[in-house]
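Q: Hi! First time doing this. I have a protein sequence and I read that you can turn it into a structure. Is that right? Here it is:
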Amino acid sequence: MEAWGLLYSVAVGAVFVAGTILVVLGSYFATRRVIGPGADGDRTIEVAANVAVRVATLHSLILGLVYAQELDDYKGVRSNLVEEAIAISDVFNDARRYGGEATATVQGGLSRYVAVVVDEEWADLGDRRGLSARAWREWETVYDAILNLVPVSERERFLAQRMRDRIAVVARYRQLREAPTKSHFSGLFWAPAIIGLVIVSAAFYVYRPTRTHLVLLGLFGAYSGVILFFIFAFANPYAEPGKLEPRPFQQLLLGDLAVPPPS
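A: Yes, that's right. Below is the predicted 3D structure, encoded as structure tokens:
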């Protein structure tokens, strides 16, 4: 699966790069055909260069801001995933320390919850279907079991309160994990990104299509494609090409939760 994901990412990246190069060169040649190269001595080249620089600056600023925002959100999802896994591990181990009949209920519910997140919920988030109702039911089972605890010693009171706090943290991180799939911010970005690319490319119509000029325009298009690809990849951290694997949860299933969950 990882090899397939890498090949898919490379293929999508190549499509973005090829597409932006075509947009850049297509805009350049289309503008030359419609307007013409301009007459020598009328300062058209100077005006076009000034316009291109100003539009390119605004375009670069938009790309940079959106790229930084998407990257920050992506890193936030990864960080929240680690924190959620830590909270689950804390509750699982504190249930063992607390002991009693609730231990099997809490640990079994957590084991099933993590398995549902890895096997079902991750794919649902990748398809933007939201959080799994089944995972919520497993969380509710654990939460109710912890709320029903009746501690009789200071040790049990401390552990019971700690488990209540940590299981509430799990619910919070679940909501944060879903947030990127509900955001439509990146969709509003693509129109100005493509339009800016077209305008910047069209502004160079006054320059002759020499080999050097075409190579430079192609490099501009290729780099723009790379940036656009990463913005696209970071927009949904649960799907290819920028899919973030639930490794902290998978490690839980191989470590603390590596026990057959009670039915």
